[in-house]
Structure formats: C-alpha cells, structure tokens
C-alpha cells in the first residue's frame, strides 16, 4: 500500500515524453502493438469503463489482450474447475464476487479456498482431476532445468480416500 507521504509523480512534458521514446528501436513494430492496446482502451471507453487497454506479446504475436473492467462482477456465477484454485486465483475470484466454486481435487500445496466469501464444493470428479495433475507432473518438459526433469518418475494411479473436506454451510 502506498503512503500518503509520497509526493505525486511529476507529469512529464511533451519534450520529456519524446525524449523517453526517442531511443526505442523498431518503433513501428512497437507502435503496432500499442495501437492494439489503444483499440482495447477504446472498447473499455465504449463500455463506460476507464479507457485502459493492454496486449501481451510473445515472439511478435499477441497472446492475450484485455481492458479495464472495474464495473465487471460475476455475481450469481458459478465456476467449475478441476483443481482447487490457488491463492492468487482465489483472490481474483473474490474480487469478481463468484457465487460458488466447484472443484475436483484439493490443492494441498497452493490451495487458496480457506475462508473464502464464496461457497466451495470439492470432490466432484476428484479422481479424474487428480489423475490429470499426476499425468502432467510425470510428463517430460524439455524446457525444465536439469534437476526438474522427470525422466524417472512414475504415474501413480492410487487415489487416497477423501477426508476432512469442509463446506462453509456445515
């Protein structure tokens, strides 16, 4: 959180802005993606939102885009997900005001549904969700650093019994 003791950021002059971008190599390349961000901001404005838009670019391709959506909530929306949402995802779900989350298996290491303001219902297709994760964790990722490679891992197919799954309604 920012302290009120910090002075406001100075607004750069037009000359300062020109100086900031003068060194950008291949400016037309970057301007093309900025144009797409501007287009997203235009969509936000047309939706009565603050006109902020963005694009994520990887290897010269837009892989995701977004716009400000402060007035967006997902009240009365249910989410079905194979694994209990992680802490970061659970936080976003709270901000979106999700009504309920239905998930397959618990996320013992990174789960974030402890004490959520939305209802949770775990265990739906639990075995399948666990097996999906296990299949992922035994497959080889050629991009992984050497200590993380999985050449000698086995796929475990036994599913432990479900114990102590709590629902906020009791």
- Described by its quaternary structure, the protein is single chain
Classified in CATH, the superfamily of the largest domain is Cytidine Deaminase, domain 2
Count up the helices.
Answer: 4
Broad CATH class of the largest domain: Alpha Beta
Q: Helical percent range?
A: 25-40%
N-to-C CA distance: 36 Å
Count of strand segments: 5
**Beta content:** 15-25%
Write down the Rg.
Answer: 23 Å
Q: Give a quick account of the main beta sheet: strands, pairing sense, barrel closure.
A: 3 strands, parallel
GO molecular function: metal ion binding; tRNA-specific adenosine-34 deaminase activity
Region (Disordered): 143-170
Biased composition (Basic and acidic residues): 143-157
Keywords: Hydrolase
3D structure, described in words:
This protein has 170 residues and is of the alpha/beta class. It folds into 2 domains: 54 residues, no CATH class; 71 residues, 3-Layer(aba) Sandwich (Cytidine Deaminase, domain 2), CATH 3.40.140. 30% of the residues lie in helices and 17% in strands. The chain has 4 helices and 5 strands; from the N terminus they run ααβββαββα. A 3-stranded parallel β-sheet has the order 3-4-5. Strands 1-2 form a two-stranded antiparallel sheet. α3 links the parallel β3 and β4. It is flat, with a radius of gyration of 23 Å. The mean pLDDT is 76.
């Amino acid at each position: 959180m920012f302290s009120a003791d910090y002075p406001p950021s100075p607004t750069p002059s037009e000359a300062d802005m020109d100086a900031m971008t003068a060194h950008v190599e291949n400016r037309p390349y970057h301007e093309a993606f900025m144009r797409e961000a501007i287009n997203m901001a235009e969509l936000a404005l047309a939706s009565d939102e603050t006109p902020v838009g963005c694009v994520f670019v990887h290897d010269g391709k837009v892989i995701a885009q977004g716009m400000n959506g402060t007035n967006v909530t997902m009240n009365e929306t249910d989410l079905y997900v194979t694994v209990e949402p992680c802490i970061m995802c659970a936080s976003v779900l709270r901000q979106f005001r999700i009504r309920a989350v239905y998930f397959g298996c618990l996320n013992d290491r990174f789960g974030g549904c402890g004490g959520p303001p939305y209802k949770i219902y775990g265990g739906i297709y639990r075995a399948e969700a666990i097996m999906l994760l296990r299949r992922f964790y035994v497959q080889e990722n050629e991009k992984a650093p050497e200590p993380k490679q999985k050449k000698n891992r086995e796929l475990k197919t036994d599913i432990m019994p479900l114990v102590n799954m709590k629902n906020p309604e009791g």
